[in-house]
């Protein structure tokens, strides 16, 4: 029976693997025309000051509007695009589109862009970033590049060169998904990050798991000791926000403040943020 079971498991496993690789192959083929056909879209998720709640900027998150299958998550096509090398073209499109969009916002709002391991492994990224900045007219200090640990571990030396070249351009660099990799601390030691983004996995269980609470608290403290501001991802509740405020977390991102929004809705959010700022200025004016 064990053998039968074992074989059945293997069969199911194999067919799943085959199905998965068929899907990946299909995605790779469909993805070929995606950039030229204008099938990629950027969504923008707000990032807010944890203490004042005010809007600071947005993270650009790519989606693929597939002609048959509808909106596809980056989780499903970015890994394929990395395998095929298509990520270079997609990455360039993301950078240029994010910079162009942000250049249309008031100066105080920043944009954060994700880059993946494959992009960091090339020499082209600093030039791509410089081109996106000059084409759009966006000031470098309004752009933040998010990299994950997996993006820098394969060839640390090369990745460090790229990160230093990016910082030379005047853009900031954030460590994304902090705590989920194999050597988050040594990565933090070797790279001059301007921000640490605590992964949402830890934030999710913050109020129910003492372990998660301790990890989040320690990460914020670590950031403070290193002089690096910490952003918490995946903030969904007031309770989580309260904890993060108390611990001195600098900024937050998550459904509590907004899901990733199409460009037009992000612009509406900016308008609303400016209006409520005017109001609070009026109020302080009235008080004075
Ligand atoms: P990430 O950079 O860690 O982005 C945050 C992800 O968390 C986003 O998923 C966002 O929609 C989701 N999220 C935000 N707030 C909440 C929340 O309160 N609760 C929950 N449950 N989830 C939340 P998304 O957009 O599906 O992106 C997934 C990942 O795909 C990103 O993770 C990033 O690693 C990658 N990605 C997205 N856009 C790009 C891109 O342009 N280039 C590259 N290389 N990777 C990208
Ligand atoms: Mg990110
Ligand atoms: Mg992240
Ligand atoms: Mg994450």
In summary, what is this structure?
The chain has 288 residues and is of the alpha/beta class. The chain contains eleven helices and ten strands.
The N- and C-terminal alpha carbons lie at a distance of 82 Å
Structural class: alpha/beta
The unique ligands bound to this protein are:
ligand C2E, magnesium ion
Whole-angstrom Rg = 21 Å
Topology as a string of helices (H) and strands (E) = HEEEHHEHHEHEHEHHEHEEH
Contiguous low-pLDDT stretches (5 residues minimum) are: 1-13
Task: Give the mean pLDDT.
Answer: 91
Number of beta-strand segments: 10
Please state roughly what percent of the residues sit in beta strands, choosing from under 5%, 5-15%, 15-25%, 25-35%, 35-45% or over 45%: 15-25%
For the largest beta sheet, what order do the strands appear in spatially?
A: 1-2-4-5-6-7-8-9
For the biggest sheet, the summary is: 8 strands, mixed, barrel
- Taken from the alpha-carbon principal axes, the silhouette is globular
Protein name: Bifunctional diguanylate cyclase/phosphodiesterase
Domain EAL: 24-274
Protein model, in words:
- The protein is 53% helix and 19% strand.
- β6 (172-178), α7 and β7 form a beta-alpha-beta unit.
- It is globular and about 50 Å long.
- It is α/β, with parallel strands linked by helices and 288 residues long.
- An eight-stranded mixed barrel has the order 1-2-4-5-6-7-8-9, surrounded by four helices.
- It binds ligand C2E and magnesium ion (3 copies).
- Ligand C2E binds at residues 45, 61-62, 73-75, 78, 94, 114-116, 146, 176-177, 200, 233-234, 236, 253-255, 260.
- One magnesium ion (MG) is lined by residues 176-177, 197, 233.
- It comes from Roseibium aestuarii.
- Residues 24-274 form the EAL domain.
- This is Bifunctional diguanylate cyclase/phosphodiesterase.
């Amino acid at each position: 029976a064990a053998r039968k079971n074992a074989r059945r498991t293997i069969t199911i496993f194999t067919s799943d693997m085959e199905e998965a690789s068929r899907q990946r192959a299909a995605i790779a083929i469909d993805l070929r025309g995606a950039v030229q056909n204008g099938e990629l879209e950027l969504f923008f998720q707000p990032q807010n000051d944890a203490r004042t709640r005010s809007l600071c900027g947005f993270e650009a998150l790519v989606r693929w509007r597939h002609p048959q299958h509808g909106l596809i998550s980056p989780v499903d096509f970015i890994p394929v695009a990395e395998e095929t090398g298509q990520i270079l073209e997609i990455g360039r499109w993301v950078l240029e589109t994010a910079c162009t969009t942000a250049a249309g916002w008031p100066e105080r709002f920043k944009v954060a862009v994700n880059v993946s391991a494959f992009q960091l492994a090339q020499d082209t990224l600093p030039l791509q970033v410089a081109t996106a900045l000059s084409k759009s007219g966006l000031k470098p200090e309004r752009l933040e590049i998010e990299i994950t640990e997996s993006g820098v571990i394969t060839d640390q030396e090369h990745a460090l060169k790229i990160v230093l070249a990016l910082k030379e351009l005047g853009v900031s660099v954030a460590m994304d998904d902090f705590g989920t990799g194999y050597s988050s601390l040594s990565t933090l030691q070797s790279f001059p990050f301007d921000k640490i983004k605590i992964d949402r996995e830890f934030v999710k269980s913050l109020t129910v798991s003492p372990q998660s609470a301790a990890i989040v608290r320690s990460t914020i403290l670590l950031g403070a000791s290193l002089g690096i501001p910490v952003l918490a991802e995946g903030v969904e509740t007031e309770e989580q926000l309260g904890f993060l405020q108390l611990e001195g977390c600098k900024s937050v991102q998550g459904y509590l403040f907004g899901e990733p929004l199409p460009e037009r809705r992000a612009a509406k959010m900016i308008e609303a943020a400016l209006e409520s700022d005017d109001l609070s200025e009026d109020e302080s004016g009235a008080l004075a």
